[in-house]
C-alpha cells in the first residue's frame, strides 16, 4: 500500500511539474507578445535611474494628481472615468508607481518616503506645477497624506476615494500571501488561461468592464497589465511594508492645514458589516483642519466606476476653493 501511495504521489508531482513547465512557456510566449503592444500612453521620465510613467492632460491653473490603490495594474485605465470628465476644468496627472502601469519594476524598497520622493521627482521633471489636489484611492491614501506632510507648500487639497486611514492600515494584518499567489498564477500561465473563462476579466477588474463599459482598448490595457505586472516584487514589497508605512504617516503632522474630502463606498448597503472600517472612515476627516466625509450610495471600493460624476463634482469644488 505504501508503495502505491508513494508511486501515486510521485506521479502527481511529476504531472504538476510538467504542467507548471508548460504553463511557464505559455506565459513567456504570451508576455513577449504583450510587451510589444503594451506601450506608454503618456511619457516616461528618468527617476532614480529608472523609467517612471506619467499621463497628463487638461487645462487650467490647478493640477489634480491621481494615486492608484494597491494592485491596480494600470492607473491610466483605472482613472479614465474621472480625468476624461475633468480635463475641461483642470489639469490632470496620473502617475504609475514603480511596478505599475508603464513604469519599470525596480526592486527598490517600497517605504513611504522613498515612494513620495519618487512622486515628487516625477512631478518636478515632468514640468507639473504645484499646488496640487491629490486623489488617493484605497492604499494610495498613505502616499497622498505623506506627500502633504513632507511637501506642504505643494498640496492644495486631498480627496480620498474609499481610501483607508493610516490608523486602519497600521492596525491591520498584512496580507502578503495575496501578491505571492498572484505572482505564481501569473508566472505559471494559470492567470493567462483563466482570462479565457467567462466572467474572470470582470471579476479581476472589480467592475471596470460591466459598470463603466470602458473602451475596448482600455480593457485590453488592464488585461495586459495584469498578465505582465500583477504580484511583481515592487507590488509585493509595497504590501509587505504597508503597516510600517502607515506608522510613519501616523508619526507625521496631524491635522493637515488643507481640506480633505473622504468618499466612503456604501458597498451597496453593506458598509455597516465592517464596523472597524466604518469607524476608521468616520474619523479620517480629522486628519484635516477642514475635513468632511460623504457616504457614496450604490457603490463599491472602486467608487469611480459607479459614481464618477459625484467625484468630479467634489473635485471641481476643491479646484474653485481659495
TrEMBL record:
This is Alpha/beta hydrolase. Keywords: Hydrolase. The keyword Hydrolase applies. The keyword Hydrolase applies. One of its GO terms (cellular component) is membrane. InterPro entries: AB_hydrolase_1, AB_hydrolase_fold, AB_hydrolase_sf. It comes from the Bacteria. Signal peptide: none annotated. GO terms for molecular function: hydrolase activity. Coiled coil: none annotated. Pfam families: Abhydrolase_1 (PF00561). Residues 63-163 form the AB hydrolase-1 domain.
Amino acid at each position: 500500500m505504501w508503495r502505491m501511495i508513494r508511486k501515486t504521489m510521485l506521479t502527481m508531482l511529476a504531472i504538476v511539474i510538467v504542467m507548471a513547465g508548460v504553463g511557464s512557456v505559455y506565459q513567456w510566449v504570451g508576455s513577449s507578445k504583450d510587451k510589444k503592444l503594451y506601450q506608454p500612453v503618456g511619457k516616461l521620465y528618468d527617476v532614480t535611474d529608472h523609467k517612471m510613467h506619467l499621463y497628463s492632460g487638461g487645462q487650467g491653473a490647478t493640477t489634480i494628481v491621481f494615486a492608484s490603490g494597491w494592485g491596480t495594474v494600470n492607473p491610466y485605465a483605472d482613472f479614465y472615468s474621472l480625468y476624461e470628465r475633468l480635463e475641461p476644468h483642470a489639469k490632470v496627472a496620473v502617475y504609475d508607481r514603480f511596478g505599475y502601469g508603464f513604469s519599470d519594476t525596480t526592486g527598490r524598497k517600497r517605504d513611504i518616503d522613498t515612494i513620495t520622493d519618487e512622486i515628487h521627482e516625477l512631478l518636478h521633471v515632468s514640468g507639473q506645477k504645484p499646488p496640487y489636489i491629490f486623489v488617493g484611492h484605497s492604499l494610495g491614501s498613505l502616499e497622498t497624506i505623506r506627500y502633504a506632510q513632507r511637501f506642504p507648500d505643494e498640496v492644495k487639497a486631498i480627496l480620498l476615494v474609499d481610501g483607508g486611514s493610516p490608523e486602519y492600515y497600521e492596525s491591520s494584518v498584512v496580507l502578503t500571501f495575496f501578491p505571492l499567489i498572484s505572482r505564481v498564477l501569473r508566472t505559471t500561465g494559470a492567470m493567462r488561461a483563466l482570462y479565457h473563462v467567462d466572467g474572470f476579466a470582470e471579476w479581476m477588474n472589480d467592475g471596470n468592464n460591466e459598470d463603466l463599459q470602458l473602451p475596448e482598448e482600455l480593457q485590453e490595457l488592464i488585461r495586459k497589465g495584469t498578465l505582465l505586472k500583477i504580484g511583481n516584487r515592487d507590488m509585493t514589497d509595497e504590501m509587505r511594508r504597508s503597516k510600517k508605512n502607515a506608522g510613519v504617516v501616523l508619526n507625521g503632522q496631524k491635522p493637515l492645514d488643507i481640506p480633505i474630502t473622504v468618499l466612503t463606498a456604501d458597498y451597496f448597503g453593506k458598509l455597516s458589516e465592517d464596523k472597524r472600517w466604518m469607524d476608521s472612515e468616520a474619523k479620517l476627516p480629522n486628519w484635516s483642519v477642514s475635513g468632511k466625509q460623504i457616504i457614496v450610495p450604490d457603490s463599491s471600493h472602486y467608487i469611480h466606476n459607479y459614481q464618477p460624476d459625484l467625484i468630479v463634482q467634489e473635485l471641481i469644488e476643491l479646484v474653485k476653493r481659495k
